[in-house]
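The pair is quoted verbatim below.
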Amino acid sequence: MSALDPPHVPRVVVLGLCIAALLVLVPFWTPLVLSIWIGHSLRRMVPGLTRLTGRKARAAAVLTVALVSVILVPLGLVAISLIGDAIDLAKRLATTPELKTMFEKLVTDGAQSTGTGGEAPAPNPMQLVMKHGDRAWSVLSMVFAVATKVIIGLFIFISSVYVVLSDGPAAYHWLERHSPLEQRTLKRFANAFIETGHGLFIGVGGAGLAQSIVATIAYIVIGVPEPFVLGLLTLAASVVPSIGTAFVWVPVAIGLALTGRTDAAIGLGIIGVAVIGSIDNLVRPFLAKWGKLDLPAFLIMISMFGGLALVGAPGIILGPLLLRLAKEAIDIAHDEKHGVAPNLPG
């Protein structure tokens, strides 16, 4: 072999090293995937910030990440607090032997009687925010003490968003040149990958967020204990098409009726049917224009639950992602078999 000949590496060595590299990344695949989705969505901010920072793209990327961190980190801390409260609520309800008592406990635990009809006063939103804020910081302290993986995951997420913003296009072009897949095939998988992120955040999460906001406001006005926790549960239940949010507000309405608050129960029922339940049919199709996920709503729900069963909480995004990529692979194989020209979006 001539000294000028390019070096030769056996394919088995290349495959083995690639598998080993993927195994190293697997523990933190969730923040990596989320950073790519969010970074891709934020890339439209970089050109404008680049002009403000004297055409320094990396400075614009740093500024974008800083802005995102200021918004997302506090929201994440409050979410951690609410999840803890939701777990506590579930444990209290699970220890209740009778169904009637469980419904009553759902709307009376932690409430303060006014002495007139047993109705609880509407909670002060500022007090609730302060309560969850205090708990969020205590949870953060606990996370720093015992959950190193969470801290590293947050660091990886923020760093990866910066890398996507500053070097994302260059990394994708490198992948195009070196991937064993054809360029058009790789582009279709990349588009399906990005589409899944947009679909989950906008098409699925956007409609669920709208429903949970309306439900939370209703819980606050009616005076239901822990309205933000119930709002979070409403958001989680919204992944079930059409009837998901009813799994939360219907038991609350039943509990209100059983405790003598008939007017509040009727009001919540009307809001649940006319507003909360209708948002899914009105808002979701509207949001689907910007966050189209080319999968039936039923399969999205099943894939989320399947992912949860397989890998826990990260399965909420892993299930739909794998299902969407599998569908794209089947479509590509079908197009190749029948000689269909690929339709690649920009």
